[in-house]
Amino acid sequence: MTELKNDRYLRALLKQPVDRTPIWMMRQAGRYLPEYRATRAQAGDFMSLCKNAELACEVTLQPLRRYDLDAAILFSDILTIPDAMGLGLYFETGEGPKFERKADSMAAIEKLAIPDPEDELGYVMNAVNTIRRELKGEVPLIGFSGSPWTLATYMVEGGSSKTFEKIKKMAYSEPKALHLLLDKLADSVILYLNAQVANGAQSLMIFDSWGGALSHNAYREFSLPYMQKIVDGLTRHADGRQVPVTLFTKGGGLWLEAMAETGCDALGLDWTVDIGDARRRVGEKVALQGNMDPSVLYGTPERIEQEVKSILASYGNGSGHVFNLGHGIHQHVDPEHAKAFIDSVVKHSGQYHK
Ligand SMILES: Cc1c2[nH]c(c1CCC(=O)O)Cc1[nH]c(c(CCC(=O)O)c1C)Cc1[nH]c(c(CCC(=O)O)c1C)Cc1[nH]c(c(C)c1CCC(=O)O)C2
């Protein structure tokens, strides 16, 4: 067990005192960085990059060499689980993820097996091990997974969707089939995340990227209960420390109180909520991560700094805030603007932790 040299990210998630607000960026290893594009070209395609532990480790570390980040995130994808279930994931340039086979009927869903994380997903565990070793205790490593609902959208639709027509049709006409799929996914995610912890992940995040597409009632039927099942099934301690769990429903601002009741440690916020209001609503129950609109990074460094100051002021004094973007960094952002963002958080957040 290596002592962490910088643990302010873990401390903030547990609302323990910190010297300044920690920061990391969703999709911090990605196409906005020229060194990422070079390593990806070397790997061939995106999934080959995920499956090569040395190269996945290299791209995980790239943003940490440039910026004062307080956490590393495993380089992988949420769609590894459906791929391991046999759906055949592939990426077509400019079109996002696609599956060769869909899970769009009771018959197809009944056939799906729960993947063994050390076997079909062994490449992810190799990456976790390699990254944890190469981080040398500098900052904690975040492991992650998609939420069952979000994974199911890709599996039923066969790829990305704007309307979620097929899965919503299933939700209202064949709810038993969808519940079976979500339940199998929750079981798969529990095994997968616990294996990530066993292999070295020090914190976990669940991406419910499409929970916000659901109605008020449907969110409580198809997304939240399965995240609850996951939270209940996770390993919460490793290496003598608590492993904090963050739930992020994009577009989930209306449901923060309900999410905070799951027993998770933190909630991710997109940019549609005011972080100070969110803090008042969830009280002492959970920490908050977020919530700058990634598009602000298209603005000037001065504009970025102004936005950072306003979010810090809205959260106010004390621990429990992990600074982040409200969603992944866009591919056409200037890496110097990402630097201005991170440097502003480092520069202005100390005053809230006196
Ligand atoms: C919905 C979702 C996916 N993947 C993920 C989510 C949840 C978060 C979110 O809401 O954005 C999660 C994800 N994907 C990736 C990470 C790596 C860690 C990080 O730096 O945050 C994480 C945490 C790498 C990636 N995952 C992907 C890339 C780009 C692939 C490339 O190099 O071409 C990266 C860096 C591919 C991917 N994978 C997925 C999409 C929609 C895409 C983009 C397709 C495109 O824009 O062409 C599914």
UniProtKB/TrEMBL annotation:
Binding residues for substrate: 27-31, 77, 154, 209, 327
Chief localisation class: cytoplasm
GO biological process terms on file: protoporphyrinogen IX biosynthetic process from glutamate
Keywords tagged on the record: Cytoplasm, Decarboxylase, Lyase, Porphyrin biosynthesis
Database matches in NCBIfam families: hemE
Subunit structure, as described in the record: Homodimer.
The protein's enzyme class: lyase
Pathways per UniProt: Porphyrin-containing compound metabolism; protoporphyrin-IX biosynthesis; coproporphyrinogen-III from 5-aminolevulinate: step 4/4
EC identifiers of the protein: 4.1.1.37
Source species of the chain: Parashewanella curva
Origin superkingdom: Bacteria
Family classification: Belongs to the uroporphyrinogen decarboxylase family.
Ranges where the Uroporphyrinogen decarboxylase (URO-D) domain occurs: 22-31, 142-158
Residues the UniProt record annotates as site (Transition state stabilizer): 77
Subcellular location: Cytoplasm
Pfam families, alphabetized: URO-D (PF01208)
Name of the featured protein: Uroporphyrinogen decarboxylase
InterPro entries per record: UROD/MetE-like_sf, Uroporphyrinogen_deCO2ase_HemE, Uroporphyrinogen_deCOase
Gene Ontology CC entries for this record: cytosol
Described function: Catalyzes the decarboxylation of four acetate groups of uroporphyrinogen-III to yield coproporphyrinogen-III.
Catalyzed reaction equations: uroporphyrinogen III + 4 H(+) = coproporphyrinogen III + 4 CO2
UniProt GO molecular function: uroporphyrinogen decarboxylase activity
